Amino acid sequence: MADYLQVGGLQVAVEYKRIKHLRLTVYPPEGKIKISAPVYCTTRDIEQFITSKRDWIEKHRQKYQRHANIKNLSLESGEHHYVWGIPCVLEVIEKKGNPRIEKEGQSIKLFVRPNTEKKKKAEIMDTWYRSLIQEAAPQFVAKWEPCIGVKVKGIYYRKMKSHWGSCNYSSQTIRLNTELAKKSPECLEYVIIHEMVHILEPSHNRHFYEIMNKWYPSWKDIRKKMNSGEL
C-alpha cells in the first residue's frame, strides 16, 4: 500500500521496499509519480530527492501530455501523426473515388470522399497503420528465428489498448499491436523478439531475461524509452 506526499505541488506515491537507493518513476499517460524508497528513508530525504529531480519530472510529464494530445486528434489537415517514430503532417484531400493514403517524405496525404466523418477517417488510418506492420513484421521475424531458435507459425495484427504484443506459446503464434507503426522500428523489433522468446519461455522468469539479454542486450533501454514516449 503506497503512502502519498505533496512536494512542491506534486502528488507523489511512496512505497517502501528493501532496496538500497531511491527509485523514481513517472508513468504515462497522466504523469503519475512514484517513489520506491528504502525502509530506512525519511520523509525529508524523499522530499529533497523529488525537488532535485523536478526538471526531469516536468520534462517527462510534458512529453506524456503531448502524446495524450495526439490521441485526441480530429484528423484534419495540419495535424501531426507519427509514422515509425517520425512526426508527419496530415493533409486531408476530399475527392471522389476510393479512400487511400499516400506518404511523401514527412507528409501523409489522406484521400477521402467529401464530408467523410472522423470515425471513417480513423478507420482508414488504422487500416493503413495495420498494413505498415504487416509489411515490416515478417522481416523481423525471419531475421530472429534462426538466432533465437524458434519458428513462428503465425502473426496476427490487432489494435490494442494495453499491450504491445502477446504470444500463444502452445500454438507458436504472436499477436502485434498495430499502433507499433507509430513507434520507431526498433520498438517493433523489440516487441517481436520479446514475444518470440515467450515461445521458448512463457514466464517472465530468470531464464526469459537471460535469453533477452543474450540476443537483445539493449532491450531494457528500448522498453524504457518506448513506454516513456521517447521512441
UniProtKB/TrEMBL annotation:
Pfam families: YgjP-like. Residues 24-228 form the YgjP-like metallopeptidase domain. This is M48 family metallopeptidase. It comes from Breznakiella homolactica. The lineage of its organism: Bacteria, Pseudomonadati, Spirochaetota, Spirochaetia, Spirochaetales.
